[in-house]
Write a structure and sequence with these properties.
This protein is mainly alpha-helical and 392 residues long. It is built from 17 helices and 5 strands. The protein has a 5-stranded parallel beta sheet with strand order 3-2-1-4-5. Strand 2, helix 3 and strand 3 form a beta-alpha-beta unit.
Amino acid sequence: MKGRRRDVTILDGDGGDVEKGAYSGNGNGLGDSSEGMSSDGVEEIRRVLEREIDGLCSKYEGIDVGLSGGVDSSTLVCLLARRGVRPRVWMLGDGCQDEGEERHAEAILRRYDLEAHRVVVEPSQLPGAFEEAVRLMEGPVINARAVAKTLFFRAVADEGGDVFVSGVGADDLLAGKPEAFGLNAEGQPGFVASRVPAKKVERLILREKSVRETKFDGRELDFWGLRKLRFECVTRPLVLPMEVGAPESMELRVCTPFLSLAMYEVARGLGREALIAGDYGKVALRKAVEPWVGEEVAWQPKVPVYAPAGGGSEELRRRWADLFEGLLTKHRLGPFERVCPDAVKSLVDEYRCLDLSSQKLRIVEQVLMHLASLVILVRQPGGSGRWLESYL
């Protein structure tokens, strides 16, 4: 593998490193918060994005860009087109797209007379591509859509892609998912509380049945502190390996304007009131880009995208179960001393029998994918120290 793997937390406009530690576990991660900004951040966001895109246009001739139809990717396509660049636009079709976003993507393409290169990924392709996706990401997979995204980037690279502009990062720094930061009665933010069901399943396959549940009170952190924590425990281990690590392992350079150092500085000065209004997150960004993308695109709700648990059919679920059974053998689980192989086998057996519509199926699948990923990663060169610090 000829990867240009970089351990990054915040990237500059053309993909260069700013801080180490995004998904390697090394370094300090995001820096300390600065004092709040005097404005709502709208003009600052607009200037940062224009400058980042200007820099890319002056540096590169051939540019590829992803388009989902969401506000982040639509903004990047619009800014490139407004500067006279005709980027190759790429769209992923894996059956998980929101109809509204697809409609908005088509409107953006028509407005700038652009054509999309569509990469169609069938659910039947995903089990067979799982191992390669984990190796390319050099990080754990907990949802099959990460596998689809890896196949998507493979198609871009195979068609001569060299520089890919990605909208990743806007949700992470600018609070694109308000529910992630709401606190429950115990003070847990949404991104912590959402992991509780999976953690309960994980404890079932550990030898120590009395493992204590970690309590975390998000009321001890300010809004920037919550965003930093979410970046470190969600974005760093799960998002960046998929969106940056995998394509760069294919020699596809990923440029992330929303994760530029300049955007980071703007984001850390914005409080909750500038970014969240009711069910809307990224409010400052939406206001900033509305003149470019239009009101409908700017203010469309954020729609989470997940591949269907079990692949959406009994046959595909059987294939996923066979994959887990083959990877999670007693021998391969040997390095993970806290894990009970018999309990893992029972969990795979349960996975085979759960109703395809049950919420538990998704939770069990997430746990099995995560553990299967670690079994693969621990065999990577230098992987033992990195992936054996704990079970998960």
